[in-house]
């Protein structure tokens, strides 16, 4: 518990020391250091954690012990496990290494999308409750999410070969990376429609249809979609029962509740139904990136409102979660700028919003992490 309290206090001080006039790479460095140190060495009680610890403990000479079926664990992740273990035999060193790599890739991608270092920093601070989900629990997919964000600028720059190469590299860490090959097509279609300045009617139809389907519980079931991509065969080892159950059934998983959908409705309204002046002035690169981010959010919105919770939808959502939150922060900051609210106060309001939401959805007792930095020595 004490490490969690210290982490929140540090995030708070970073927020109030936000550099308002000039961009600051030092501010970003301290944010990355705190986030990576905290989540890198923490034990977080998630369904996947036990499985990854067992993978790390059992790997030796490129293979796992005979009681463990490793055919479905991607080769890139296996060699990353082995390479980390050759350097340090602590699992938490490996977790710290992976999270650091992910943060570097994310930062590089977001910077190339036109975001300032200080904007990237406060996004990481706002997302303190999201990192355990997409970076610690879903460790393999977290690597691919980072590669995906890193590769997004290639779509905008029309360097499609480089984007495909990144997706193929991601395949060696999580097979679902191949699903991301369709994103450039969706971007081209969405970008064409938005540039044509079509009326808001199609977006209004999507908005109303998705809300009617969700709130009247008419969502589609796709439980068996992509089972070969998302499921893992871990039944041979009893230590991985929890992971196997998590991967093959929707038991224990829940979709977003009505309040979260209303939050998405707000983001949809601001992004597609309302013309606004952005918070990033004279930044044509970020303006172009917003189109891409908005299209990714549209995919996320549809997935969460039209489809029942399943392993496939649950995991597919991860890829579009970060773009959604980036867009949400942008829209909130836009409103605060319009009403001339002080930047520091704006940042604190957003942070408190996510902090309270996190406490509601994750009781404080679940924040009693075990901290294992001493294990690496």
Give structural notes.
It is a single chain. The protein has one domain. It has 17 helices and two strands. The protein has helices spanning 2-16, 25-40, 49-58, 75-87, 91-112, 117-126, 131-137, 139-156, 160-171, 183-195, 201-215, 227-230, 241-248, 258-273, 284-306, 311-338, 343-361, and strands at residues 42-43, 370-371. It has a two-stranded antiparallel sheet with strand order 1-2. The chain is globular. Mean pLDDT is 80; it is low at 65-69, 231-254 and 277-282.
Give the gist of this structure:
The chain is an all-alpha fold and 377 residues long. It contains 17 helices and 2 strands.
Helical content, roughly?
55-70%
β content, as a range? under 5%
Q: Give me the Rg, rounded.
A: 21 Å
Poorly predicted tracts of residues: 65-69, 231-254, 277-282
User: Biggest sheet: strands, sense, closure?
Assistant: 2 strands, antiparallel
Number of separate domains: 1
| Overall pLDDT confidence | 80
Helix-strand topology string? HHEHHHHHHHHHHHHHHHE
Distance N to C terminus:
23 Å
Q: How many beta-strand elements?
A: 2
* Strand order of the biggest β-sheet: 1-2
Global geometry: globular
What class do helices, strands and sheet pairing give? mainly alpha
Number of helices: 17
Question: How are the elements arranged and paired?
Answer:
Elements: H1 2-16, H2 25-40, E1 42-43, H3 49-58, H4 75-87, H5 91-112, H6 117-126, H7 131-137, H8 139-156, H9 160-171, H10 183-195, H11 201-215, H12 227-230, H13 241-248, H14 258-273, H15 284-306, H16 311-338, H17 343-361, E2 370-371
Antiparallel strand pairs: 1-2
